Amino acid sequence: MSLHPSLQSYADAWTHSVEAISELVQPLAEGEWNWATPCPGWSVRDVVSHVIGVDCEMLGDPRPIHTLPRDLYHVQTESQRYTEMQVDVRRHHTAPEMTAELEYTIIRRSRQLRNETRDPGTKVRGPRGTEETLEEAMRRRAFDIWVHEQDLRTALRKPGNLDSPGALVARDRLLSELPRVVAKEAGAPASSAVVFDVHGPVDFLRTVRIDADGHGTVDGAPSLGPAVTLALDWETFFKLACGRVKPAAVADRIKVEGDHALAQAILDNFAVTP
């Protein structure tokens, strides 16, 4: 028995991104670990701590017993408190300690994936004590770690891997959110369509169609008379969708045709990650 075929692409994406992260941070000087990333309140060290912490939890390790400081301005919700625990507990770790723990975690997690024989539908522990299927957990992990690889690349000014296996997982994950963003959050009118024309290392044309009841679906067929067409590059698309940039900061990289008020409503609600 070996890893189920439907899980292999997620394992490959995780491996590609986590090895890229390791290569990025291995040569860093102590001070570079403190550089700010696009994640509010998080340094390079904090992002790597998060990567280590989540994979340790996926390995079944117990969560750290730790009291968070009260002055973390970016921690406002219980969900954020849960996530911050694995980060804050490593905040004073040195560069050698960070790289050593990252490498050890990669070795352990890679071994776990090589020996994984469970069915994709098997229930496993999810974030904050929830349950999810193994397939959902691995999909979410591949998406999350690629986004954090890009956070580190932005912070360290070392762009790359915009078309890696993780990028394709991220594309599919973000596309699945578009119907909700357009129909529910932005309030696109019934029986309308919105086209997303994305170019760059990952390129695609997708149409979100709103039916007569106001429900949205997404497909790859063009629309003859869309209410809005948004044309933008892949990097801008995923950074908006992951809340890494505000629409106003990248307005010059987005071309809008059609209803500008609806387009703005879509862009204002575009961020879909926690």
TrEMBL record:
Could you tell me the keywords of this UniProt record? Isomerase
- What GO molecular function annotations does the UniProt record carry, in alphabetical order? isomerase activity
Q: Decide whether keyword Mitochondrion is in the record.
A: no
Q: What Pfam families does the annotation carry?
A: MDMPI_C (PF07398), MDMPI_N (PF11716)
Q: Domain MDMPI C-terminal spans what residues? A: 169-264
Query: Which organism is this entry from?
Result: Streptomyces polyasparticus
Residues of the region (Disordered) are: 115-134
Superkingdom of the source? Answer: Bacteria
Q: What is this protein called?
A: Maleylpyruvate isomerase family mycothiol-dependent enzyme
